[in-house]
Amino acid sequence: MTNLLINVDHIATLRNARRETFPDPIHAAVLCEVAGADGIVFHLREDRRHITERDVRLLKEVVKGKLDFELSTNEEIVSICCDIQPELATLVPERREEVTTEGGLDILSNRARLEQVVTKVLEAGVREVAIFVDPVTEQIKAAADVGANCIELHTGDFSNATLPENRERLASVLADAAEAGHELGLAVHAGHGLDYRNYHLFKRTVPHVEEVSIGFAVIAQSVLVGIEQAVRDMRLIVKGY
Ligand code: PXP
Question: Which domains are delineated in the chain?
Answer without folding.
Answer: 3-239 (3.20.20.70)
